[in-house]
Amino acid sequence: MKRIVHLAVYNTLADWETGYATAHLRGEQYDVVTVAETLDPITTMGGMRILPDITLDSLSPADSAMLILPGAELWDAGDDLRAFAAKAGEFLAEGVPVAAICGAVAGLARAGLLDERDHTSAVDGYLLAQEGYGGAARYVEADAVTGGDLITAGPTEPVAFAREILGRLDVYKPDMLDAWFRLFKYSDPAAAEVMMGS
User: Fold this and answer.
1) Looking at residue 8, what is its pLDDT?
2) What is the architecture, at CATH level 2, of domain 3-197?
3) Which end of the chain is more exposed for a tag (fewer CB within 10 A), N or C?
């Protein structure tokens, strides 16, 4: 039976940040289900329309393998998406992984969810400007970071973000995950051979 990974969707969602992860999650092990505050269509930053599968208030950590939070202009527009940060807190409290990229990392920073976990972002100054953030000592300068059940990345690192997600969910064995990353990050022809050989 397939497990479910939940992808948060909201207006101004940054399309490119989760595509590598979701495209490679769907398969024999996982399905991706979109979750929004309402079932109304949302429009991404790139102008794509998405019809959400379920509403945020019906989402339980017990029914999920992971919650993925993409960036969006709305994360920096105030507290419009604080319900998603609150849900991420529920997931982390239950030991269910959360993956956040770009502005979603700032939303989790404002909610205090980074204070005790290793994390990264676009730049540390971006998080230092967030009210409620007290996790500067746990900031790691890296493309993407897994700190316990929390995965974080900056907006320019969708491939590294996907690598951490695919690794955390055991989608590929370590050698295949390394080849996958080298192929999509660096266009490494040797990595393509490894993947085709499997």
Assistant:
1) 98
2) 3-Layer(aba) Sandwich (3.40)
3) N
* pTM more than 0.85: yes
The catalytic site residues sit at 102
Packing angle, helices 82-93 and 103-110, rounded to 10 = 70
What secondary structure, in 3-state letters, does 177-195 show?
HHHHHHHHHHCCHHHHHHH
Burial of 18 (0-12, 13-18, 19+ CB in 10 A): buried
Domain ranges of the chain: 3-197
* Residue 77 pLDDT: 85
pLDDT tens by residue, 119-133 = 999 888 899 999 999
d(CA 52, CA 111) in angstroms, rounded, equals 24
pLDDT of residue 79: 62
